[in-house]
Amino acid sequence: MNGVHGALLRYRVMAYTVGTLLLVLVGVGVPLQAWAHSDLVVSVVGPLHGVLYIVYLIAAYDLARRARFTLLQLVAMVAAGLLPVLAFVIERRVSARVDRELALALPAPGGVRRWLPW
Amino acid sequence: MPTRPPGAPADRSPVPSDALAGPVGAPDLRRRWLSGRAVAGHAALAVWAPGCLVAGWWQATRALDGNALSYLYSVEWPVLAILGAIAWWNFVHDDPETVGSKGLRLRLRQGGAEAAPRPPVGAGPAWTDEGDPEMAAYNEYLTRLAASGQRKTWRRG
Predict the structure, then answer these.
(1) Is there a contact between B52 and B84 (Cβ–Cβ < 8 Å)?
(2) How close B125 gets to chain A, by Cα (Å)?
């Protein structure tokens, strides 16, 4: 259905990546910076999470459009990349929902609109 | 009553318009760009895009002051502004009726018949207990029970 399978896979990969990076950043990097005065982990993982979060945003938005999520569901996916652990919770719920709807094998009304304006 | 040449197809109006496909007329354009939903989208972009650009500019000044991480952020904020513009364009052009649980119900109504029908229960070659004496005996036992009106039980008797 409109490449939802691929979009779901891309979103899941990015959700796990960003979720893990954020856990490392908050669970390891910040304590090291606060108590051991070592900036190493924060200075490496911080920018990495910053860049990959943009990729995560694009993957989440792409999936939300293809699977026709509401704005609120998209907001939950966006927030999931910024709060520790939430990425994994939301990923499970999103995947379960998309799998359920894919199982219904529904054709989209009016076909698929192109993703980009041009 | 207007005359119609014989054999011409009967008028069918109103034509069901699909907001997702085909060219649109002036009323459709007005609804698309000036509905309350669309105006909310315009307002969101009007706040979002300049906000991102200002933040990007601020990060650029910080980067020039020697903050290395700000080089990254001064690129990311404009990217977020562009993403917002793409999302705004798609938001205005998408049909809100097809979104979420409401949209799912709509698609179920519209596409339920077109979706691949499941094979009916019982289709396919009939199952037999041929070649399995134990299963055949058990089925014969169940048949006897059903005929006598008794229930299946674990007790022997």
Answers:
(1) yes
(2) 26
Confidence of residue A109 (pLDDT cuts 50, 70, 90): very low
CB B90 within 8 A of CB A117: yes
Name the one residue in this structure whose structure tokens are 């077109």.
B114
Measured in angstroms, the CA of A110 and the nearest CA of chain B are apart by 6
- Angle, to 10 degrees, between the axis of helix A71-80 and the axis of helix A86-103? 140
pLDDT tens digit sequence for A62-72:
998 888 888 88
CB contact under 8 Å between B104 and A61, yes or no, is no
- The tens digit of pLDDT for each residue in A41-57 reads 888 888 899 899 999 99
Q: What is the pLDDT of residues A2-39, one digit of tens each?
A: 688 888 999 999 999 999 999 999 988 888 888 888 88
Q: Which residues of B touch A54 (CB under 8 A)?
A: 76, 79-80
d(CA A78, CA B80): 13
Contact of A39 with A25, CB cutoff 8 Å:
no
Q: Kindly give, in sequence order, each residue whose CB lies less than 8 Å from that of residue A88, ignoring residues fewer than 6 positions away.
A: A15, A16, A19
Please report, for chain A, the start and end positions of each structural domain, with discontinuous segments joined by +: 4-103
